[in-house]
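Deliverable D5.2: sample structural annotation.
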Amino acid sequence: MDQDKIFKKYESLLSQKIIEDVKADLPSKVSDKQLTEILDLVVKDYVAAMITPGECVGLVAAESIGEPGTQMTLNTKHFAGVAEMSVTTGLPRLIEILDSRKTISTPSMEVYLEKPYSDGKEKDIVEMAQRLKQIILEHLTASFSINIAESTVEVLLKEENLKKLKFTPEIVEKEIKKKFKKCSTKIVDGNTIMVKADVNNLNEVYKIREKLRVLYVGGLKNIKEVFPVKRGDEWIFVTDGTNLKDVLKIEGVNTNKTYSNDLYETMSVLGVEAVRSLVIREVKKVLESQGLDIDLRHIMLVADTMCAGGNIKGISRYGVVSEKSSVLARASFETPIKHLINASLVGEVDELNSIIENVMLNQPVPIGTGLPKLRFDMNKK
């Protein structure tokens, strides 16, 4: 019998993805009888893994993540293999992900490289890392001094750093002119740039000096540091700061594997499906670093809930909870008075369809054995 016909029989019992996975993992020679036996075992496992109708999956997932979460340590700063860099881990990072915070405490990226770049020599890798890093004017200068009498800031450039980072005084002056349009600039003595303020106020001159220090002149914005790390046989870059959009444009970067730990940046560059995968990956990473083992399906359910609306919403009163149709369910989470007053002002009706509101009113809840209902047909004798 044709094996495609056997697979066709099982299409109503298994999902397309599982059938494709079975096809990919099959040995090269397998008889029709063996294939049928394999598929029967897969169906058995698939049915066993399914959730019973009425199972309270949200509660089980919340308990599965919440209980080990209380065992987590609070030592938040560590990064395996990179001594100079600290990344938020543990409970603070878990809260950051599940609340979907817009600004995270330690934004970071893992930049994977394509071959032959990933197998390159250490010297070439360090050179490539320099290209990714944000360069500010302070990286190129020996000193910043103020001439009070003339209201000027003198920027003395360091020749060694200019050569290393492939800059010239002319390029630097052009970048200063772009940012400080009201100031006049000129190059003196080859490596010194004079920036004259248009005001005689000393405070303003000091402000200009401080702005000059952090003036962005090259590299990728927001990436403060790049650390080359060897994982197995390949080199990858771990960054302090993120700029996913620009990193993916760089030649030699593996766009399929490179990722940022910033949910909102991933959302804007790659979309909601990528954010869902990132939530799963990041939560799993945090839990594994603490030695906690949680079934992946619980994490997947939380990620699905956060991304179900096509946008990212945190597990908070402003996110997922705010979208509940029941007033009592919303009030049970936080700020109950506010929810109850707002609902009574507009005459909102609660249909009592969910679990929380029925628990609050001491009624049978629509889960498990409370899901089926007995009805009498009064027309029949």
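Annotation notes: The two ends are 55 Å apart (CA to CA). Residues 3-49 form one domain.
The annotation will be released with the project's public dataset once the embargo ends.
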